[in-house]
C-alpha cells in the first residue's frame, strides 16, 4: 500500500479550494503533526497560493504571514526538541526561503 500524505492531497485534489477558502472566504487552516509534515504542508500551501492566485512565491509567503498574523493559519507541531523556539524559527525561515528575492525598493 502506497502512503498518502496530506500535502499530496492538498496539491492534487484541493488546490483550488485551499486558495478560495484562505484568500476569498476568510477561512482558517489548521495543521497538526510532526515538524517535518508541518513544514511540507506549509511549503505546499505556499506553492498552491502562488499557482492558484497567480502570484510569486514571495507574495504567497506574504499571504501566509498575514494569515498567521490574523490567527487564520494555525499550527500544532510536535516532535522531540529541546530548543523549541529555535526549531520553530528555523522552520519558518526555511519555509519562506522558497520566496523569490524581491528587488530593492518600496513594496
Short description:
This is nitric-oxide synthase (NADPH). The chain has 107 residues and is mainly α.
Strand and helix map with partners:
Layout (H helix, E strand, L loop, with lengths): L5 H8 L1 H10 L4 E6 H18 L4 H13 L3 E6 L5 H13 L11
Parallel strand pairs: 1-2
Helix pairs in contact: 1-3, 2-3, 3-4, 3-5
Family: Belongs to the NOS family.
Organism: Lamprotornis superbus
Protein name: nitric-oxide synthase (NADPH)
Report on this model:
Keywords: Calmodulin-binding, Flavoprotein, FMN, Heme, Iron, Metal-binding, NADP, Oxidoreductase. This is nitric-oxide synthase (NADPH). InterPro entries: FNR_nucleotide-bd (IPR039261), NOS (IPR050607). It is built from 5 helices and 2 strands; from the N terminus they run ααβααβα. With 107 residues, it is mainly alpha-helical. It has a single domain (6-96), classed as 3-Layer(aba) Sandwich (Rossmann fold), CATH 3.40.50. The chain has a two-stranded parallel sheet. α2 (15-24) packs across α3 and α3 runs parallel beside α5. The protein is globular. The protein starts with 5 loop residues before the first helix and ends in an 11-residue tail after the last helix. The mean pLDDT is 87.
CATH fold-level name: Rossmann fold
Q: Which structural category fits the helices and strands?
A: mainly alpha
Give the fraction of residues assigned to helices: 55-70%
SSE run: HHEHHEH
CATH superfamily: Nucleotide-binding domain of ferredoxin-NADP reductase (FNR) module
- Major pleated sheet: 2 strands, parallel
CATH architectural label? 3-Layer(aba) Sandwich
Number of strands: 2
What's the mean pLDDT score?
A: 87
Strands ordered across the widest β-sheet: 1-2
CATH class membership: Alpha Beta
EC number: 1.14.13.39
Cofactor: (6R)-L-erythro-5,6,7,8-tetrahydrobiopterin; FMN; heme b
Organism: Lamprotornis superbus
Enzyme class: oxidoreductase
